[in-house]
Design a protein that fits this description.
The chain is mostly helical. It has one domain. 64% of the residues lie in helices and 0% in strands. The chain contains five helices and no strands. Helix 2 packs across helix 4.
Length: 132
């Protein structure tokens, strides 16, 4: 085997090992976040049921972790990050983690819909463009 072939195999092994480590860290972070939020949170919250005194926009901002004056780009980035992390495919099929992740994903979608429904269409269309 040539030196280049050996170097290629060594690098490929290293990259594969690091890739598995990073995927494991992402899964561990997602599981930790699920445990922190807990199964007691339900998709249909008091704010969705129309209970007086509960501000749905404040709850949506808390779910996405964005400030009150957040731009569309900030909201969209938070939504994308949380949507990816709460993907039920990251957990074994039929497990409690997958069910909780599905509930969390529904909450993230609801929060995104609540926060973006009153925004200007131009900001929604062009707010997340990255122009260098």
């Amino acid at each position: 085997m040539s030196t280049g072939g050996r170097a290629y195999r060594i690098l490929k092994g290293y990259i594969s090992r690091e890739w598995d480590r990073v995927k494991g860290l992402e899964r561990a972070l997602a599981e930790e976040e699920l445990e922190r939020i807990g199964p007691e949170t339900s998709v249909r919250s008091a704010s969705e049921a129309g209970v007086p005194g509960v501000d749905p926009r404040a709850r949506a901002r808390r779910i996405l972790g964005v400030p009150e004056d957040a731009s569309f780009r900030t909201i969209h980035q938070a939504f994308t990050r949380l949507n990816r992390r709460a993907d039920p495919k990251n957990f074994p099929a039929g497990s409690d983690g997958a069910q909780i992740a599905a509930q969390l994903r529904d909450q993230v979608h609801w929060a995104y819909r609540v926060l973006t429904e009153g925004m200007d269409n131009r900001e929604r269309r062009f707010g997340s463009l990255e122009i260098d």
